[in-house]
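Design review, sub-item: ligand-bound model
Attendees: FS, YL, KQ
YL presented the inputs for the manganese (II) ion complex:
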Amino acid sequence: MDAYTPNKSDRFTFGLWTVGNPGRDPFGPETRVPMRPTYIVQKLAECGAYGVNLHDNDLIPFGASAAQRDSIVREFKGALEDNGMVVPMATTNLFSHPVFKDGSFSSNDPKVRAFALRKTMDAIDLGVELGAKIYVFWGGREGTEADACRDPRSAIARTRDAMDYLCEYVKDQRYELRFALEAKPNEPRGDIYFPTTGHMLHFISTLAHPEMVGVNPEVAHENMSGLSFVHAVAQAMECAKLFHIDLNAQKIGRYDQDLRFGSEDVRQAFLLVRLLEGTLGGAPYTGPLHFDSHAYRTEDEAGVWDFARGSMRTYKILKAKAKRFDADPEVRALIAEQKDAALDPLLSGYTREKSAKLRGAVLDPEELGRKGLSYEKLDQLMMEHLLGVRG
Ligand code: GLT
Ligand code: MN
Ligand code: MN
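KQ shared the predicted structure:
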């Protein structure tokens, strides 16, 4: 036990499919024995996690009878209670079964769309029964290889119809549930619709109930697009749409690796934790911290729990480092907000008078252009904090 040992107050969660990943990849079968969901709950609790998330079919096999479902749910609820664990988020598997080979909500076939809606309503019922407050939508199969198959605008419109329908369903059932949309640019499809968090944020503004819908950005997915994950998360936070987050790590330009959080690009992981925790001063993110990642294929079960504990420890270490970085007087001096009592009031809230004053203000672009900003010093200070020789 040390300061970085995780505990329930840290709000760390894992999906059943994450620690339960048996190591299968496109080139080889499982390297680990699958674990029972109730066992996963017990082991995650021992590791210090706060909750567990699931797809409908992580718990209830596809095609199970109502009686089988009820008995599985009863047993699972017992395990949650025995281990003081919660289910903050649930989702639907709309990608494994061959019926979804060409998407679910965006499929050209109304029968597939009908099946997807029905499966999602059942899975929402399951999630709510287990206590979930967030419902994730990851449209992994909503995309194309043969792009001539449909007008991409129909895919967008059909997805909107599905979201509006499901929001109404939630309202009709009086569930206390919000949706979080997760973007990914490709894999398993050649191209996936709504490839980034930014695309999702705009799409949400076109829905009938935008207040019920936010985003679930994933480190690996934004990285696959070659974009800054930190900036995507910041944009979501700035408009109060960060409803959930999928933490993992990813080498740039690769397939979706879902590596242990912080194991690649430590700088970005640090800046992300700094943003989420608000150590710079902004409002923090207060939702669950979900690790959507899995242990290397080389690992046995012991390696899986090393992976889980490592994910949480790295987050806590980075959080402590972010606090020290933002409390460092040299850092604070370098990034102190610049104030100008005369100019600041002229820069927002246009009026004719303000714009006239702005035009009259004395500004010297040559002098401003010559001014050094000391970002080399700032960045090196960050490196020294990260590398453990400062703070
Ligand atoms: C799948 C995917 C993840 C999504 C999960 C939710 S399923 O593992 O790779 O990024 O978050 O459906
Ligand atoms: Mn994810
Ligand atoms: Mn992923």
